[in-house]
């Protein structure tokens, strides 16, 4: 089903948005259709939200902060697609969050594993030599800084929101 909100800006809790999405309700604000699926990326499976998944346009990969999930990017995803109609917007739930795998071993959450998850996701969505416009917030920014320093060819642009540089 669809929930027509007649929009502007909707104030809705992340829990309510998640529940509506899980029930198959899409939020409509003249907005793009959001989809999500679980994707194997290395040794883990991530839940990933998409807008325009099948487009051939530029790929924007959005990394959430703590304690958020992919749908926290919904408003920005709408703006991106409004500005760049061919954009592919990729919004993973990072390891341990929302509907992505949650390993029980604390060592599984080492920054190297988090970076590997995102690097592998880039290959899944963009191909073996693929690259993305990486946008990250908070804890996602820490992951993005390290990923970009290790794999600069995988990142066209890096935009960090509210995260300190690691140096």
In brief:
This protein is an alpha/beta fold and 167 residues long.
State the secondary-structure class.
alpha/beta
For the residues shown, what is the average pLDDT? 86
Rg, alpha carbons: 15 Å
- What is the spatial order of strands in the main beta sheet? 3-4-6-5-7-8
How far apart the termini lie comes to 47 Å
Q: Give the % helix.
A: 25-40%
Name the helix and strand elements from N-terminus to C-terminus, one letter apiece: EHEEEEHEHEHE
Regions with little confidence, pLDDT below 50 for 5+ residues: 1-30
The profile of the biggest β sheet is: 6 strands, mixed
Strand-residue proportion: 25-35%
Instruction: Tally the helices.
Output: 4
**Number of distinct beta strands:** 8
Q: Tell me, what's the shape?
A: globular
Descriptive overview:
The chain is of the alpha/beta class and 167 residues long. It has four helices and eight strands. It has helices at 14-22, 74-83, 111-126, 139-150; strands at residues 2-4, 26-28, 34-41, 44-51, 59-63, 88-92, 132-137, 155-161. The strands form two sheets. A six-stranded mixed beta sheet has the order 3-4-6-5-7-8, with helices on both faces. A two-stranded parallel ribbon has the order 1-2. α3 (111-126) crosses α4. 34% of the residues are buried. Mean pLDDT is 86; it is low at 1-30.
Question: Helices and strands in order, then pairings?
Answer:
Elements (H helix, E strand, L loop, with lengths): L1 E3 L9 H9 L3 E3 L5 E8 L2 E8 L7 E5 L10 H10 L4 E5 L18 H16 L5 E6 L1 H12 L4 E7 L6
Parallel strand pairs: 1-2, 5-6, 5-7, 7-8
Antiparallel strand pairs: 3-4, 4-6
Helix pairs in contact: 3-4
């Amino acid at each position: 089903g669809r929930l027509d909100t007649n929009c502007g800006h909707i104030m809705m809790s992340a829990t309510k948005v998640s529940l509506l999405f899980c029930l198959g309700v899409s939020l409509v604000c003249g907005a793009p259709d959001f989809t999500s699926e679980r994707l194997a990326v290395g040794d883990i499976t991530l839940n990933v939200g998409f807008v325009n998944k099948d487009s051939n346009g530029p790929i924007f990969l959005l990394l959430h902060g703590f304690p958020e999930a992919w749908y926290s990017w919904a408003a920005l995803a709408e703006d991106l697609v409004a500005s760049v109609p061919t954009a592919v917007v990729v919004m993973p739930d990072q390891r341990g969050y929302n509907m992505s795998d949650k390993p029980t071993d604390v060592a599984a959450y080492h920054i190297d594993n988090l970076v590997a998850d995102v690097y592998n996701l880039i290959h899944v969505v963009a191909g073996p030599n693929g690259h993305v416009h990486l946008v990250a917030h908070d804890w996602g920014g820490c992951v993005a800084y390290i990923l970009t320093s290790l794999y600069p060819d995988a990142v066209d642009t890096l935009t960090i929101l509210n995260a300190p540089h690691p140096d």
